[in-house]
């Protein structure tokens, strides 16, 4: 579908431009289908508008995404009357995640025109950059062809946006992105290189941490395969790494997070069960056996906890996680949990070591999970099965922060949009308390903090308020915030106005929420990207 969004260079103020801006202020937000994320025959041209600041005044440029059905898009300029010294303080860098399938499993750019148009709209809003997800499987299965990913990266650069690159070492279910064929062949020959639960179920998102240094991939270790992937990326993106790319996010597990796949992939985010330990592949069991023998208790190495509940059960459905008298507090429980979390920490250390070797001093980041259900219990079972020994009396996140600090790696924490009040009753959940704990651990270890939203379908007004509250308060030193993610929902009339209002409120933090323009008013935002570059946006 041809796109009706064209952005021109900001022009000098005229009476005609001002009149045009006034008319545009009454228009609707950009629908998702206008940007090509869904088909509709009832599409009219859309435009993004500006108005120019008065000569000599403090300049704070603004954008309003509007739909007025006109046949020719225009750009006009507008000045914000409200400005204080507070505006000059630099906030956290704001990114928007690109669609996971911006490059398809077949290594083809999808929705290219829509993505390019969306990037231009983001640049006009004052967003700093976008996050580009890169799949190890897509790269490997295409014979090492980087052309599609380079094309998307060039779109961001040409739109005047910075670029964060996320190197995914895991498989995706939706959209479907497999692991490399090299890995699939190895799995067919030896399924035990995958994480395995107590009933023998295999998890195909990523390889078991126990095989990091074993030559299970046609004579290569997974770490060697990761290094080749990283090296190839660095060579292909050398020019962009010296200009547009700000940092690289390294995948450390399922969904890119440092964790075990302790919840079924279809329900990990919404589950309120305790999850299951993922230690039953033969390589993990061999390591457990060895460690138990070294500890002088060989019987401890015969299996994982026999009294732990199943995935979706509560802590009290078995004896291992019981708050009082649970096996987690016994010498065996302490041994097992230390070993299990230790394998997670060692994996993070090894992969980040490889990344540091390849990328040198280039800024790195990695993601940790916010497994907040059952946080208000003594055992915190869902965190234990995920690999974080964060039970009462221990700080499982401080140990992780130490690893990140060792490699000068920023920690990305999702869930900044979540509040305790909105969590299901009975799960004893507290995302806010857990987030506070993680932030404290990072600050203690001197680790830079970035964050993301957790909501899959888009954050509502309450979520945006929570994000702003956190960024302006508890984590005021936040390095960056990434909003996930661009697509049909993102540009919908229900969501786009909320997002633009959020960007405005972040740019003008002293404004009361009641002062933020509504959907029928012009939304005015700092346009530092326009001020820095005298650029012209061409039609898609």
Automatic annotation (TrEMBL):
GO MF annotations in UniProt: beta-amylase activity
Residue stretches of biased makeup (Basic and acidic residues): 530-540
Biased composition (Acidic residues): 513-522
Alphabetic keyword roster: Carbohydrate metabolism, Glycosidase, Hydrolase, Polysaccharide degradation
Annotated GO biological process: polysaccharide catabolic process
Coiled coil (UniProt feature): none
EC code: 3.2.1.2
Region called Disordered, residue ranges: 513-540
Highest taxon of source: Eukaryota
Catalytic residues in the record: 257, 452
Catalytic activity as recorded in UniProt: Hydrolysis of (1->4)-alpha-D-glucosidic linkages in polysaccharides so as to remove successive maltose units from the non-reducing ends of the chains
Family: Belongs to the glycosyl hydrolase 14 family.
Protein name: Beta-amylase
């Amino acid at each position: 579908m041809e796109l009706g969004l064209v952005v021109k260079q900001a022009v000098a103020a005229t009476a005609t431009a001002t009149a045009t801006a006034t008319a545009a202020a009454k228009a609707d937000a950009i629908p998702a289908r206008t940007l090509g994320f869904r088909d509709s025959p009832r599409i009219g041209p859309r435009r993004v508008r500006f108005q120019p600041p008065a000569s000599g005044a403090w300049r704070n440029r603004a954008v309003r995404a509007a739909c007025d059905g006109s046949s020719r898009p225009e750009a006009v300029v507008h000045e914000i009357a409200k400005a204080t010294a507070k505006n000059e303080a630099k906030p956290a860098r704001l990114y928007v995640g690109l669609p996971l399938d911006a490059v398809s499993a077949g290594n083809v750019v999808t929705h290219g025109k829509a993505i390019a148009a969306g990037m231009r709209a983001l640049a006009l809003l004052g967003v700093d950059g976008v996050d580009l997800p890169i799949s190890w499987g897509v790269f490997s299965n295409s014979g090492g062809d980087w052309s599609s990913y380079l094309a998307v990266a060039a779109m961001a650069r040409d739109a005047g946006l910075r670029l964060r690159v996320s190197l995914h070492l895991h498989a995706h279910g939706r959209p479907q992105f497999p692991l490399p064929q090299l890995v699939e062949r190895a799995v067919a020959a030896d399924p035990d290189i995958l994480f395995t639960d107590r009933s023998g179920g295999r998890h195909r998102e990523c390889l078991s941490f126990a095989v990091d240094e074993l030559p299970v991939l046609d004579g290569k270790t997974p770490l060697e395969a990761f290094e080749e992937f990283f090296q190839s990326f660095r060579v292909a993106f050398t020019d962009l790494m010296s200009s547009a790319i700000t940092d690289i996010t390294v995948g450390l597990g399922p969904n890119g997070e440092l964790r075990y796949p302790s919840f079924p992939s279809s329900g990990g985010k919404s589950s309120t069960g305790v999850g299951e330990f993922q230690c039953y592949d033969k390589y993990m069991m061999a390591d457990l056996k060895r460690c138990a023998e070294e500890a002088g208790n060989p019987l401890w190495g015969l299996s994982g906890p026999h009294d732990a509940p199943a995935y979706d059960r509560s802590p009290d459905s078995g004896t291992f996680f019981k708050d009082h008298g649970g096996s987690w507090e016994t010498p065996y429980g302490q041994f097992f949990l230390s070993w299990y979390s230790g394998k997670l920490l060692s994996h993070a250390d090894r992969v980040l070591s490889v990344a540091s070797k390849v990328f040198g001093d280039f800024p790195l980041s990695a993601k940790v999970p916010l497994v907040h259900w059952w946080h208000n219990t003594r055992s915190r079972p869902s965190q234990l099965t995920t690999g974080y020994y964060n039970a009462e009396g221990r700080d499982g996140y401080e140990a992780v922060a130490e690893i990140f600090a060792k490699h000068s790696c920023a920690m990305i924490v999702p869930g900044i949009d979540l509040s305790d009040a909105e969590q299901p009753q009975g799960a004893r959940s507290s995302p806010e308390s857990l987030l506070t704990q993680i932030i404290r651990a990072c600050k203690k270890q001197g680790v830079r903090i970035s964050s993301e939203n957790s909501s899959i379908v888009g954050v509502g007004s309450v979520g945006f308020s929570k994000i702003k509250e956190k960024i302006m308060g508890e984590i005021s030193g936040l390095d960056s915030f990434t909003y996930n993610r661009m697509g049909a929902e993102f540009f919908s009339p229900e969501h786009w106005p909320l997002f633009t209002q959020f960007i405005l409120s972040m740019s003008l933090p002293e404004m009361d929420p009641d002062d933020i323009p509504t959907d029928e008013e012009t939304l005015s935002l700092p346009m530092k990207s326009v001020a820095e570059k005298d650029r012209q946006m061409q039609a898609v």
